[in-house]
Flagellar basal-body rod protein FlgC
Amino acid sequence: MSLFKVFDISGSALHAQTVRLNTTASNMANADSISSSTANTYRARQPIFATQLDDAGNESAGVDVLSIVESQSPLRREYRPDHPMADKSGYVNLPNVNPVEEMANMISASRSYQSNVEVLNTSKQMLMRTLALGE
């Protein structure tokens, strides 16, 4: 594998982790949003990743973000009869976002991002030292 290919792979991984961080931040921002109907209630979202293959289809060439899917886990319902968005039974609908899982996901994505930045920096240093050999 070419050393220059490392930049492409790490770049695609950085993009994928950015999407993951943005999705997690969106989930956290909407964790306490309330709705009167299940159709309008926010649902947790997660990105789906896939391996990019090279032109021959043999070697990994990076990471693709295939899509962002909504969680199918049930929504939370709370009894709050005094809330203005409560339904006829006195219940409000809350998102299916688990803040603990989202924080763990955010930490994992952040560490993955940092690791890929380190790969880029190390590759750059190796290229610079290789160029310095010719002096």
About this structure: The beta strands are 45-53, 60-70, 76-79, 91-94. The two ends are 25 Å apart (CA to CA).
